[in-house]
């Protein structure tokens, strides 16, 4: 077994992958609210006779990916309804599909898949919001702050449409290279903070969904790419960036087989405080031992919440010539199906209750009200050093605010204010007041709580950055919509 994975063949946009169906002639209204709930673990019951029933015994799910063309495929739909309780759209929710033109969204094909799944009590995984592939065509002419703004706008638009309906969203997909560094892409060229911006934007857009980073070739614990992604998640969790889960695509090929340390990889990510999931599983020739092994590894890690196969039958697969799925072209289950079913039923761990990161961590900024645009990249919120005596409240006027423009584009800008304690006593809170130019409105604020969105606006500290020691400082940021980039005036800072 080759433990160091070679890069598998990537999924293409062409016909070899779960094929895209034609656009629906009529708009499809997405169901107003998801009716599904997460499974409740009960290992004392009888073994499950379907994949979903077996997975649900331990509080997990077993999912599949489908394209809108499969909505008229009775063989596919029969198996999907019987065996699976989580669904992912193959291409229909990717950026090029959902926003073909700037500011013009098309959710018809995505809605069709979601509605079908939701009507059958399935949960749903959104895939994907920010990716170097399958981007809207108009992104190709953008760069820098304009592309960053387009990414933010796209995330807000798509997540607003599906708000409260999904269990998981793959916020960022495949952002790392094989050597463990960031992948070179137009999104990476907008600044190294683009992944953080995407996650903070997503959390602001929908506080209820779990936000995931998704990638391939991160199954081997000692592989450089795995370590690169691990360090990203570790940093995000330490700084309170809202990431809830890591998706391991689990495409196992002849040169990229199940690594012997796969369970260690899952456990190591989970130890950071995130869920892990196998999100696009397929295995060359449906190897029974590899399918059994990947399932068992997930069952042994409490925060491994579920497994999704990328398609159902070999005829659905983007790797169809390798016959990599659990059902053959005639819809018959293979030996690998039985191996997976048995491994699911043999689970000895259950999934703990893990809500999305909406409450503040004890040592990092909270994620309840993050930005719909780029967060500050210069420094995380600053807190006062521990003290053995109650802090002294600083007199009014001891704080000051300094504004700088971070980014601007046609139709808006991103601003940042540094709040500094100029006194010798600890501040117990602060409030900044500023006045926006005519026609400007605040779209969102992070690391602070605003009152008002136009004219004179006040921003007070968040729960985690109000206490500032002598000579300490913190920052808050905001996004302004408007035709001008005129800087706010009348900036003042007061402390109670």
UniProtKB/TrEMBL annotation:
Could you confirm whether the keyword Hydrolase appears in this record?
yes
Instruction: Name the Gene Ontology biological process terms.
Output: xylan catabolic process
- Mind listing the UniProt keywords for this protein, alphabetically? Carbohydrate metabolism, Glycosidase, Hydrolase, Polysaccharide degradation, Signal, Xylan degradation
- Extract the ranges annotated as region (Disordered): 348-398
Q: Which residues form the CBM2 domain?
A: 392-496
Please state every residue range assigned to the domain named GH10. Answer: 45-343
PROSITE patterns per the UniProt record, alphabetical: CBM2, GH10_2
Q: Which InterPro entries match?
A: CBD2, CBM2/CBM3_carb-bd_dom_sf, CBM2_carb-bd_dom_sf, GH, GH10, GH10_dom
Give the catalytic activity: Endohydrolysis of (1->4)-beta-D-xylosidic linkages in xylans
The record's GO molecular-function terms, alphabetically, read: endo-1,4-beta-xylanase activity; polysaccharide binding
Q: Where is the composition biased (Pro residues)?
A: 353-394
Q: What class of enzyme is it?
A: hydrolase
Q: Does the keyword Hydrolase feature in the UniProt annotation?
A: yes
Q: What is its EC number?
A: 3.2.1.8
Extract the PANTHER family matched here. Answer: BETA-XYLANASE, GLYCOSYL HYDROLASE
Family as reported in the entry's similarity comment: Belongs to the glycosyl hydrolase 10 (cellulase F) family.
Instruction: Tell me the protein's name.
Output: Beta-xylanase
Organism (species): Micromonospora lupini str. Lupac 08
What is the phylogenetic placement of the source species in the record?
Bacteria, Bacillati, Actinomycetota, Actinomycetes, Micromonosporales
């Amino acid at each position: 077994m080759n433990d160091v994975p070679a890069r598998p063949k990537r999924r293409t946009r062409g016909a070899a992958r779960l094929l895209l169906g034609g656009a629906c002639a009529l708009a499809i209204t997405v169901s107003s609210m998801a009716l599904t709930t997460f499974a409740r673990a009960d290992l004392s019951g009888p073994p499950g006779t379907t994949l979903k029933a077996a997975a649900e015994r331990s509080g997990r799910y077993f999912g599949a990916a489908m394209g809108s063309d499969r909505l008229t495929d009775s063989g596919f739909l029969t198996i999907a309804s019987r065996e699976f309780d989580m669904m992912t759209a193959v291409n229909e929710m990717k950026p090029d599909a959902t926003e073909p033109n700037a500011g013009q969204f098309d959710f018809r094909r995505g809605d069709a898949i979601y509605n079908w799944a939701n009507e059958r009590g399935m949960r749903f995984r959104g895939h994907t919001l920010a990716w170097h592939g399958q981007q809207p065509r108009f992104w190709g002419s953008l760069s820098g702050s304009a592309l960053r703004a387009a990414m933010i706008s796209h995330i807000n638009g798509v997540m607003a449409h599906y708000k409260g309906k999904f269990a998981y969203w793959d916020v960022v997909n495949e952002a790392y290279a094989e050597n463990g560094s960031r992948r070179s892409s137009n999104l990476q060229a907008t600044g190294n903070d683009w992944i953080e911006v995407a996650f903070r934007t997503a959390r602001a857009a929908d506080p209820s969904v779990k936000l995931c980073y998704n990638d391939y070739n991160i199954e081997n614990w000692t592989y450089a790419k795995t370590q690169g992604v691990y360090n990203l998640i570790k940093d995000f969790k330490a700084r309170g960036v809202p990431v809830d889960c890591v998706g391991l695509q689990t495409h196992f090929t002849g040169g990229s087989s199940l690594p012997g340390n796969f369970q260690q990889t899952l456990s190591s990510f989970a130890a950071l405080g995130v869920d892990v999931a196998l999100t696009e599983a397929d295995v060359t020739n449906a190897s029974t031992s590899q399918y059994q092994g990947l399932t068992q590894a997930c069952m042994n890690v409490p925060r491994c919440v579920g497994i999704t196969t990328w398609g159902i039958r070999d005829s659905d697969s983007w790797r169809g010539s390798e016959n990599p799925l659990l059902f053959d072209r005639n819809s018959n289950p293979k030996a690998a199906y039985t191996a997976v079913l048995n491994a699911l039923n043999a689970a000895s761990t259950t999934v703990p209750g893990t809500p999305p990161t909406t409450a503040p961590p004890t040592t990092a900024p909270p994620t309840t009200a993050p930005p719909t645009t780029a967060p500050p990249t210069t420094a995380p919120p600053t807190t006062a050093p521990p003290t053995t005596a109650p802090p002294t409240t600083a007199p009014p006027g001891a704080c000051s605010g300094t504004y700088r423009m971070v980014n601007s584009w046609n139709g808006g800008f991103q601003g940042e204010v540094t709040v500094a304690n100029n006194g010798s006593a600890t501040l117990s809170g602060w409030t900044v007041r500023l006045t926006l130019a005519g026609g400007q409105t605040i779209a969102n604020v992070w690391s602070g709580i605003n009152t008002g969105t136009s004219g004179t606006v006040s921003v007070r500290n968040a729960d985690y950055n109000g206490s500032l020691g002598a000579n300490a400082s913190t920052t808050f940021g905001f996004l302004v919509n408007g035709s001008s980039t005129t800087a706010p005036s009348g900036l003042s800072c007061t402390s109670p």
